Structures are given as structure tokens and as C-alpha cells.
Amino acid sequence: MVKLVLLIPGAALLLCLLISQTTSTPHVQVSASGACISSERDALLSFKASLLDPAGRLSSWQGEDCCQWKGVRCSNRTGHLIKLNLRNIDMDDYNYPNRSKPLSLSAGEMSSSLATLQHLRYLDLSWNDFNGTSIPVFLSSLKNLRYLNLSSARFSGRIPSELGNLSKLQYLDLSWNYYGNRSYIVDLAWLPRLSLLSHLDMSYVDLSSARDWFQMVNMLPSLKVLRLSLWTQQHHVC
Fold this sequence. Notes:
The protein is mainly beta. The chain has helices at 38-49, 213-217; strands at 2-7, 51-52, 72-74, 81-85, 104-105, 122-124, 147-149, 171-173, 178-179, 181-182, 199-202, 225-230. Strands 1-12-11-8-7-6-4-3 form an eight-stranded mixed sheet, with no helix packed on it. The protein has a two-stranded antiparallel sheet with strand order 2-5. Strands 9-10 form a two-stranded antiparallel sheet. The longest helix is centred in the N-terminal third of the chain and has 12 residues, at 38-49.
């Protein structure tokens, strides 16, 4: 195993979550009280219904105004949901924390209702338990994402190349996913399409089949931080 952590110098990046949608869009229905868009509320409730929540972390997800729910943020201008942070904050990234109360799937796969959240700019599902399922391809339809953190969430299998469709992405963390087998990448031809990417963490992702990884990473003009693991058959070198 080879662990390589590359810190790429450069000016500090300001992660600006630009909210540029106009409030005059005809199909947007925002109540006078600032309540969230009803279709987006329904999408969150469908997602919640697909999860086991032993700690009651989603207990606030009830009532009309989803903008007031824990982990949810909406645009003050449009009412659209722009941030969903479901990171398990009880977890400690470095000390193998108590994993007794993560969100997990009640059925075989994650609800695709999240694909309804087309104005989403920030999504964090880290430190939960998605039961060894693959990272869902439908996440690649969230074209306004700037921040995506799927680390330590017990995904496995092939990381979808469709993530290259997230052309506005500035932060991507796919690290430390393991459920019997590590998540893996066959090739990284999709990576250079993320030209705004500043932070990329693929620690513990199996890149053994991605022979072109160095060339692809070197084609990211905005990259400031890169973390990845290069694995050999016998040992791990820093």
C-alpha cells in the first residue's frame, strides 16, 4: 500500500455558494412565510422514509416548512433547498468512533428522490452507513453542486464516472468507503471535466486499475489539495 498525500500550493480558494436564481421564475411557488418548495419537501420526506434513524436525527423533519428542518438550508431569495448536511457529527474521523447511531438504508438502495433537489449546492452524507451500496448515479444529475462529501459512509463498488457531470464542483470527498471491499475507480477520464475542483480526497479508494491517474489529476487547473492512496500488493509507503 502506498499512501500519498499531496498538498498543492496556491491561493486560498473562497468557496462562494452563489445563489443566482431569480425569484420571478414562473414555476417557483414560495409561500409568504418563506416555507420551502413543496416538491422539495416531498423529496426530503421520501428520502427520510428510505432510512433507518436510530438516533432520531431527522426528528425535526415534519411540518410544512422544510427550511427549518435540521441539516437543511434554503435560499432566502427563492426558497429552493441549497444545502443538505446529514454528516454524522457524533463521529470522530480519526479514532474509529462509535458507529452505533448513523443513518442507514431501510431497503436496498438510496431513494432517488434526492434527484429532485436540482438547486442543491452542498451535500454531505459522510459518516453514515449506506450498507455497501454503490454511490448512486443519480447524484450526478445535481448539476449545481459545489460541495459533495460521501466519505466514510460505507459505500462500495465502482465509483460512477458520471460524477464528471458535476462541472461546478469545487470540493469532492470520496475517501474511506469500505464494506467488505473498498470503493474503486477503473479510470479517471471523467476527472478533468471538474475544472473548478479545488479539493479532492480519494484516500483509501482503490486506484490500481486507473493507470492514468497522475495525468488526469494534473489536468485539474484549480486543484489546491489532493489526498489519495496508491496501493501496491505488499506495503504502504508515505
